[in-house]
Amino acid sequence: MSNNHRSMEARTGRKNQRYGPQGERLVAGIVPLSLDKTQVLLIQSTKHDGWVLPKGGWELDENTAQEAACREAWEEAGVICTIRADLGKIPEMRKPSQLTVQAPKASYQFFEATVEKEEKNYPEMAKRNRMWMPWSQAIQRLSGRPELLEALKRSSLKR
């Protein structure tokens, strides 16, 4: 898809959100790796003081979780990537105290991808910084988010 077809507006809201059989929100995410697999791209969380992987709701107009994950990578990190592996489903791992109306119980589907292009301008650039980091730094930054840490551990990022 050419950059001319990529929206510069991030999707918001939950009206087009997909939900699983137990009412859990279906979330698609990306572990965006450098071509040599020595670095992963993390983004700043908009809700907490910390770093996360690009992820978000799989919406009704998206045929696959891969499509949703690539859209989230574009909106949140400004990257165009190629999916290389399905890292599988990851169940909700947050503590009940971490769940809120804005962040309800979720089921995560993560994909490993290589970043083909990193754009200067992207939909959430005013809300989020992004940073490339090696394994040792990334596992520290994701330590408070066990579902994201699990996705990183499943990836082929060089340790």
Describe this structure in words.
18% of the residues lie in helices and 30% in strands. The chain has helices spanning 65-77, 135-141, 146-154; strands spanning 25-33, 40-44, 51-52, 55-57, 79-90, 106-118, 130-133. A four-stranded mixed sheet has the order 4-1-6-5, sandwiched between helices. Strands 3-2-7 form a three-stranded antiparallel sheet. The longest helix is centred in the middle third of the chain and has 13 residues, at 65-77. The radius of gyration is 15 Å and the shape is globular. It starts with 24 loop residues before the first strand and ends in a 5-residue tail after the last helix.
* Largest beta sheet: strand ordering: 4-1-6-5
Total strands: the figure is: 7
Largest sheet: 4 strands, mixed
Distance between the termini: 32 Å
Helical content class: 10-25%
CA radius of gyration: 15 Å
Low-confidence stretches: none
Determine the structural class based on helices, strands and strand pairing: alpha+beta
H/I helix tally? 3
Order of helices and strands: EEEEHEEEHH
Overall shape: globular
In what range is the share of β-strand residues? 25-35%
Overall pLDDT metric? 90
A few lines on this structure:
By secondary structure, the chain is α+β, with helices and mostly antiparallel strands. It contains three helices and seven strands. It has helices at residues 65-77, 135-141, 146-154, and strands at 25-33, 40-44, 51-52, 55-57, 79-90, 106-118, 130-133.
